[in-house]
């Protein structure tokens, strides 16, 4: 009998190595988004912070700094997400950079 060497095709990800390495394009982003509620009300969400950080302490400082209310929500797909009342996108990005939590090139601001 003759043995045949078969290779079954699988989903090939050409960027898999780049994600695992510390390459410049493989960085984790912090996404700051705005969601429209009803009328003029809006909600700012912050996701993608590293798990080592205490979300509750960051939220406490954000609430005190910007005089707004907020909460930490546990999402199945996204993990922990910080929600703040109002349009705080620019304020949050400046706060995260000045506190040294993330670098400027790691922040993506979405909305409007």
From TrEMBL:
InterPro entries (alphabetical): SUI1 (IPR001950), SUI1_dom_sf (IPR036877), SUI1_euk (IPR005874)
Membrane-traversing stretches: none
Domain of life: Eukaryota
BP-aspect Gene Ontology terms: regulation of translation
Residues covered by the SUI1 domain: 30-100
GO molecular function: mRNA binding; translation initiation factor activity
Keywords: Protein biosynthesis, Translation regulation
PANTHER family on file: EUKARYOTIC TRANSLATION INITIATION FACTOR SUI1
Family under the similarity heading: Belongs to the SUI1 family.
Described purpose of this protein according to its UniProt entry: Probably involved in translation.
Name of the protein: Protein translation factor SUI1
